[in-house]
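Collaborator request, handled under Task 6.
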Amino acid sequence: MNKPLVIGHRGAMGYETENTLASIKKALELNVDGIEIDVFKCKSGEIVVFHDDELERLTDGKGPIEEKTFAELQSLTVNGGHQIPLLKDILNLVNGQCLVNIELKGSDTANNVSKIINKYLEFDMFAEEDIIISSFNWEELESFHKKNKNISVGVLTDLDQDPLEALQLAKKLKAKTIHAEGTTLTEGIVKNFKKRGLKVIAWFEKEPKSYKNILDLRVHGIITDCPDKV
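Structure tokens returned to the collaborator:
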């Protein structure tokens, strides 16, 4: 079987604070095939890399991230002594060394993310196949696809969801990948997607102790907190 792509979850969050430059650097040191990051649009319009709607878990700040300006976010400290980076900071650091999976977490992110990506493509820092846009917010995913049909989109499905529910939207958006929670996948589901020309990327709500089961399913990629353990 072909070796699946190993994609660092929020960088390499098993070793460094998630979605920080340090986490991305660690993932690159581990020779990942790709990284997965999450983005929001903050109040002043910048696209920032952060996972949670609220600031409390990961920073010394409080409240919704979308209600803060970038200047306000820069005054906060992320766990471990880091700062919240811009999407541009992450792309500059990666600079085409691996695939980047950008998950649209917040609302109204599609337009600005598309503009940013196009600039990096224009300057040949990334190729189109180096970028995947994914989201649980299927409306936001549709919005991105309308603005930028050259970039692959991946339909995300959740732990309590049948991955096959993504088929209709995947067809509509000409998606190339389905990003499904690993424990919801079966051999039959993976074969069903492959039969339709779709690649399957597995992510995990809870990092597995062993990757044998998901490797046996012959998925295209695995999003993992600890890329070296795959």
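The cover message to the collaborator said: "The radius of gyration is 17 Å. The chain is about 30% helix and 20% strand. Please let us know whether this matches your experimental observations."
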